[in-house]
Structures are given as C-alpha cells and as structure tokens.
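Sync notes, pocket subgroup
Present: LS, DG
LS reminded everyone that the earlier model was apo-only. Rerun requested with iron/sulfur cluster included. Inputs:
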Amino acid sequence: MDTSTWSWEPGERLIVDLNACKDKYEWIEELHVSPDGEKLGAVVNVQGEFSACINGEAWDETFERVWNLKFGPKGQLTGCASDMGEWKFVVDGQPWDDTYGYVWNTMFSKDGSKICTAVQQDMKYGAAIDGVLWENLYENATGFVLSDCGNHAAAAVQVDQMGQAEIDKFAAGIYTVAVDGKAWNTKFTNVFGLVFNPDGSRIAAEVRLNLYDYTIAVDGKPWTQTYQGTWAPTFNPVSGAVIAPVRQGGKWTLAQDGLPIWDFFVNCWQPQFSQDGSTLAAIVATALGSWTVAVDGRPWNVTADAMVSDLVVSHNGGLIAALGKTGEQWTAFVNGKAWPNRYDMAWAPVLSPDGEHVAAKVEKNGKYTVVVDGKEYSRAGDNCFDPVFSPDSRFVLVKMVEGGKYYRRVVPIAEFK
Amino acid sequence: MSDTAEHTEAAEPVLTFLEKVHAKAEQDQVDGKYAAFEKIEDVGIDQGVARLTPEKIQKTINGVLKGECGTRMKTYVETCVHCGLCSDACHHYLSNDKNPKYSPVGKVKRTIWNMLDKDGKLTPEECREAVIVAQTECNLCRRCQQFCPFGIDIAYMISTVRRISFKLGITPQYIQDTANSHSVTMNQMWVKDDEWPDTLQWQEDEGRDEIPRLRIPVDKEGADFMYSVIAPEPKFRTHLINQAAVIFDQAGCDWTMPQLPGWDNSDMAMFTGDFETMGRVKKMHYEVAQKLRVKKIVMGECGHAFRSVYDVGNRWLGWRMPPIEMVHSIEFFAQLFREGRIKLKDKYPEQVTFHDPCNTVRGRGLHEDGRYVANLLTQGVVEMSPSKLYNYCCNAGGGVINCGPPWKTKRVLSNKIKAEQLARMKDRGINTIVSPCHNCHGGLEDIIHHYGLEMELKFLGDLIYELMEKPGAVE
Ligand code: SF4
Ligand code: SF4
Ligand code: SF4
C-alpha cells in the first residue's frame, strides 16, 4: 500500500457528519473507512432498495441487496449486489460486466491494483480477477487465495464427481489445487492452507494423502515425509524454502522442505518470515493454555492463557508483535514484552515502516481508540478504524467517529502518552 | 341383549400410552426386530473389515492404546471392579432386556479389555463388533459415570475405540461421510461456501415480511457476539435462522454471522475419532470469530457441538478453555429474560416436559437455566423421571443418529426406556417436549413416531419466537 501520496498534514479534518445523512436513508449499516481515511462508506437503505454511500453520497444505482462492502488499498469501495436474481460485483458504483450465480469473498492485491472474488456460475466454482472469470470452473472450490501481486488466484477444487456418501471415492482423492483455473495433476483426499510465494510464481498447500497422512505439496509435488497433521505453510521470501507446522508424535514443530527445524510444542501455527528472510516467528503453545510467540524457535517468556493472534513481523525481523488474551482481556506483546494496559478488544497490530513502532485499535468500556507503543491516544470515540503510520514513521493516522461525526486526524507519535 | 353387546363394545379398555409402548415392544420382539440387530449391514464397516490384516489390526490398536492414551486409560481399566453399578444407568441396557452385553462395563469388556487382553491381536470379526459397540451402542452420554463409585469415564474409553476404528478404516459409512464433509467444507452437511451467505440472505428476506427492518448482519466486525449454528440449519431447518434473527433483533442484540466457513460449530469428526479434522474445524470456528473481533460466540440449540467447542476440540488444540467465551443458547435466552430484553405477549397454553441434552446438562449444568426459560414460556415444566443431570439420553447423540438409516431401528428400539418415560408424561396429559438440541429432536421424533406417542417437540427458540412481543413487526 503506497501511503506517500496521502495527506500527512498534522491536524484534524471533519470528513462527514453522519447526523446530516440520517434523514436521507431508511437506515445506514456498518461504517467502513478507506485506508487513507478520506472516505467513509456504508450500505444504505434507500426507500427499500439498497446502495452504498461514500461520505454521505449514495451510488447512482440501487439494488435489491448490497452486502460485503469493503474498501481496497487504493480507496475503491466494493460490494456485492443483487438484482432480479443475479449477482453483480460493484466497484465505486460501477458493476463489472458479467453477472454471476453468486459472488463473494473479496480479495485485493497488496497495492490494491487488482480485485479478486470467488464466483459461482451455473453451480460451478472459480475465481474472477477484475471481472475475468477462470476458464475452467469446478464442482466445488474452497480456500481461495490471491497472490500479493494480484495476477494469480488459486483454490482447493473438486475435480471428480462424488455421489452421496461415497466414502471410498472420497478417501481415494477427488480434490486438488487449481491456479488461475488450471488444476494440478495429482489428486488428494483434502487440500487446505494454500499460499503463494511473494511474486506469485509458486504455490504451496497442505495436502491430506488419505484419511491419515498429511504433508505439504509445492507446485503439485508433495514432500516425501508425511505427518499426523499440518497447518498452512509459508515461503522464505529470500531462499524460496517452504516451511510448515507439522504434527509428529502428538506434538507440533516447524518443518522446512520436510525436515523439522524447531523443537516440539503443544501447538505451533501461523509461521511468518521477515521480508529479508532472516527471522522466522510463529504462534506457539508451550503447554495447555500457555500461548506465546516463538522467534527462530525460542518462545518468549510472556504468555497468554486464552489465545495469541495476529502475529506481525517487520521487514528485518527487528520488531515482532502479536495480540495476547488473558482471561477476557487483550493486550499486545511486542518483542517479548506486554503493553501495560488491558483492553476489552484489540485489533491486529500495525508496524511503522521504520520498524520502530507498533500501533493498534483497541476497545475499552465501549469506546474505541488507538494505542501506539502501549500509550493511548488522548481521545476515544464511538468507533475507530485501523491506524496507519506515515511513510516517515513520525505520524499516525487516527480515524475516529465521535458523536456521529467522522474525523481524520494526523497525530504525531509524541502525542501518544 | 343388544344393549349389553353395545355396552361391552364401549367398555373395551383404552390402552394407556405406557401400555401402548409395552405392546409395541412386544410386537417388535415377535417380529424379530431386536434379533435383526445382528444382521445390520454397513458399507463403511463391512468393506473396511474385509480389508483388515492381522498386522494392521495389532499395530493400529497398540499404536493408539500405547501411543495416544496416557495413564488415564490404564487407571480406569485397573480401577474398575466389575461391580455393575453402572448398568442400570444405560438406556441401551435397560431397553434391551438388561442384556449384560449392553451394560457400560459389558461394552468395555467387548472392546478395550478385549484389546488389552489380547495385546491388540483381534480378529476382523472382533474389530467389527468393537466398532458397532462404539458407534451404535454408546452415545458417550456419560450417564453411567455418575453411578460409578470411582467415576470411571466409560465414554472416554468408548471414544478411544472409535479412534481405533477410524484408524482401522472401519467407521460406519454415513458418519464417515459427515466427517468428510467437515474436512472439505468445514461444515457437517456439504454446504458450499456460497450457499451459506445466500441462505442467510433469503432468511433475512423472509424475516422482513414480518419485521421490515430485520437484518442478519454478516461479517459485522466488532459486534458483541457471533452466532454459530450447525449445518442442518441452513440445509433443512432454515426457519430456525430466521427465528433466531428475529429474537436477537427484537431483543436489541449486537450480533453477526461470518461470511466464510467457520460458521458451523458441529463436529462429527470428534465422534468418529478423527481428531485431526476435529481440530481443524474448531480452529476455523474460533479464528473466524476472532477475525470478527466479537467478545463471545453464542451457539444455537445443539448439545454435541457444545461438547466439541467447550471441552474436546479446544483442548486438542492447546486451548485450556474456549479462547473466546462460548455461550449456549439456553444460557443466552435465560440472560435475555433476566435482563428484561424479551417480553412475552402470550404463554404456551399447556404444561410441557423438558428433555435435557446430555452435553449441556452433564457437560455444563444448564438444566436450571433451561427450566427458568421454559417455565416463563409455558404453563410450567412437568419433570420426567429421572431428569436433569440424570436424564436418559435420546439415543441420537454421540453421533449415533449420524450413523444413518442402517442403524435407525436399532437406535429407536434401544431406547424403549425413553419411550416409557415419554409415555408416562403423555398419560399425564403432557403433549409437548421442550428440548434445546437438534440431535435430541431427531432421536425423540423417531421414538415418538415408532411408539405412537403423538407428542410435539419444541426448541426454546420456537416458543420464544412464537410468544414474544415484537415491537418491530408489521401489524
Ligand atoms: S455413556 Fe451413556 S450410552 Fe455409553 S455406556 Fe454410558 S450410559 Fe450407556
Ligand atoms: S460402576 Fe464403575 S467400577 Fe463398577 S462396573 Fe461400572 S465402571 Fe466398573
Ligand atoms: S443428542 Fe441430545 S440427549 Fe442425546 S447425546 Fe446429544 S445432547 Fe445427549
């Protein structure tokens, strides 16, 4: 996401007063805000028909239904809309040319230049990128993914028909991976956890070889080792090696190209490399009800008894953050230390481009605000959206709704106390 | 003379429902229906057994018993004194003329003990018997555990037999297919990714005929709770989704349902012993809720799913407790009433009885909340005997109903004891059973039908929906 063209002028701007819109619509649904904070959007009911509004102005067209509203990284507002039993995918009020049996699961490329959706057409399944549907569609498709560049989409697809309760046929394998609509040659009992490498030229997935044996397949070729279980793999962005959490003897570790590289844990998932490939982190359980992050195999001392989620790793691995939940309360763990305060809810941590700061949206007593490096913003609103750091890492974009008014604020980091 | 004849005809005894059940059971005996249990065929079991080799049997059994079971199994086996105090707890035993082979300890004898005694060297025929016992003669209902002086958990032992059966590849066909569905779609009924949101949308449309501003908020990030259901709801009982939406909407709840898989909380993989699939499905359930940043998950009226999300699945993954607070509908409805968020315009005109799902009562003690709600809604709950913590299982639970058509008659006949319980209620003029569990409904419906009990089944949600004030409804 390119944030350099956004306005980083410190200070506050009122973007829209929702109180003024209220009379225009029967009702306004959940609010969404564009990444740059310039636009607030929502599904609106216009005299029984539906549309989306941006900063108070509805799209020209109305539909029988609009749902799955999302802003892309470039600020485009997308949604799925139905009319006369057909489904359309709408970008900034303009439907794509084709209509579908059903369309859902919007995905954006990293820079927002491409948009991908899952599509059902005549009871067959595939993906469409910018409205171009796969040539081959399948009996079923699940677990759709889009490459970072947005040029390739993939899914786990069903390649053979199966009658009711045909358990032998199922076990023998009727599923595989399809990339851009083209299926691998090998069939598996199941396919899960598809992941592209950073440039989208390769793909790895968890495969179940029969009812009992799991492994990782890379570009159609399974590893020779099998395991009692696997979780989704990841690519080393520099070496291209594939690593994945694997289960052996009832315990979990990470394996690289088939061989264990870490000690064993009660669980281990969501492995993530730094962009320079130097650091590998994952969420681990060191004992039942004791969760943390392990970096290069070494677990942090700080633990959460309920769960750890939303792991993020900076470019060079110098800054690693995740959310930790103890009892019913959330906080962030950053490089092995917990933030001082606890929250009723926390959103995924966001890292500054220089790899020095961590920010997150949090909720406390029904109010929402932004925390940077453990320090809270001075105001809390009725709603608030994920913060973004300026390219120079000196400012934080705070998008907040207070008293029905939506404000965009550029706040110096020093103001979080 | 003719007068007398007429009189005699009119006086012909009217059978009580309890007598009807006895008569039907006798007829079932005469018809050889009980004897036919021995001849049931199941493709999943029979073809699986045909593929077994002595090496595979021994290696698999010992692999699970020695490799996966800790000291718990050993302790149970060594502690049991074969006193038989648990026998009268089991509806299979009571419904099959107290045949000791159906007693809890009898079932352990036919499975785990046999495996231990023979160091895993079972014949294929013995493996066949073991899977039939484990999948069709025990509901893992844990009633027996309450009568054992040592608290031995027979259900745990039987679950282990299911795990072994899964690894031997001899799981019954229909429940295996259900587990297969979980592995592909993350739900129990092969509901495809688009069919789920599509169903929510047409249920929302239906609901708007009554409540014009009704919404089923999909993917509403930061909502107070995510509502999760079991796949039979979008597949067959779609009106339940509409009903729940109306209740939540009119009670002013801030809720959501996810767009993507993870919406189904059910778990047949837990019941086939395919723990790897169970773990994957539970992981997705909690992850989808976490992505929506909800504070809790409220689940629909289902018993076994509660066991999976609250006790078994979460722990297999390393979560000691559910990582996100998990609230059963029974508790949630009770809370809504206590907070005055549901007001009733009417009461159900009759008294009702209450069937407690094993998993919410023995797993979590929700019987009082259930009665609190049912008493508010009706002319009062009349207790079956036994009830609450000691309630007899419906014999659908534990995945038994999911073993499908081949096993139906055996399942119904093996719960004659429940039919008698219900008949006693019917003889007291009780026509309605409230039960907050899908499987219980399935199991009880079959019993009601087979024994001609003419009773009605209701979910709590059915009654609330019917009887609540709906300020948002059109006149
Ligand atoms: S768990 Fe229930 S069904 Fe199984 S043996 Fe015990 S009482 Fe019988
Ligand atoms: S009551 Fe307990 S000790 Fe007695 S037979 Fe049953 S399981 Fe064994
Ligand atoms: S179906 Fe109902 S009564 Fe029966 S085991 Fe489940 S919860 Fe128990």
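DG: The CA atoms of residues 146 and 153 of chain A lie 4 Å apart.
LS: The pocket of iron/sulfur cluster (ligand 3) is lined by residues B 139, 141, 303-304, 357-359, 393-394, 396-398, 437, 439-440, 443 (CB under 6 Å).
Action: DG to write up.
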